[in-house]
Amino acid sequence: MANKWGFLGQDWAVNLLSGQVANDRLSHAYLFTGPEAIGKRTLAILLAKAVNCQNPPAEGEFCDECRACRGFAQMGHPDLHIVQLQEGDRDIKAGAVRELSRMLSLSPYEANYQIAFLLNFERASVQAANALLKTLEEPPQKVLLLVTAESAESLPATIASRCEIIRLRPMPTNRLADGLADDFEVATERAQLLSALSGGRPGYALRLNEDAELLAQREEWLGQLTSLLGQGRVERFAYAASMSRDREVLKEALQVWLSFWRDLLLRKGEAAAAISNLDHEDELSLIAKKLSLEAAREALASIEDSLHSLRGNTNARLALETLLLKIPRV
Which CATH number fits the domain 11-167, given the four candidates 3.40.50.300, 2.60.40.3450, 3.40.30.10, 3.20.20.100? Predict the structure, then answer.
């Protein structure tokens, strides 16, 4: 169920942060870590609202109605500064971080604290990370630095060690399904499917619920995968040439493939753990009969390796071609 910040899951994190706000014991920098769509940015926004709310109903809470709450919710407050990967760039540039430091040296325009979001900072260049380090070592007054990353280990230790780390983890899928049904009025069967598909990530489950195109896109990617299983090298390489044009879309597709192959491995190994793709249960069982356990395991590991490579500077087409050579033909 949603907690006092209206956040689905991560009650421990909400209680910790709201208590720090209430007792005026904020750290100068927080690092929110966890898998994609777990709620890192959402929790950072809620913290920004809590420290800047003009009419808090209680200590450590926010009204969600004042100018500050609305501004931070819409990511458009004058005291909010955002540093993130720009379209067309391979990494976050040092110049953006230096400009942020210059802005943070000024007093807040109207909020209690200036808020700096540094999103997906594992994508920062070495120079950008070094530029942030100086601000972390000598933080300005009335500034709150909120960093998100996949893991603390994906950042230089010098940065992670200067932040309070909030490690977010997936919820149990049954609890997430209950929360979707109770707090967001999602039909029970649909809530169970969305919870399973999201792997316990509330942010992704809510995105799937709100955007029908995401579910349709998932179906398309799964259809492409099952089609490729029966095709040879020529067709697979033609697919790689087309699919690798958009690196971010490719990463999203591979995440869907990863969940499917995880389910295949569970089916092949006759594991008791629940599968994610509940609406493809018959198809999973059929394909699993035609695969060896080792083939399923190797395919899953290959997709994980490809995703890891794509987070770096690996050529996307080459990474996908290599992956498709390793995926077995069924």
Answer: 3.40.50.300
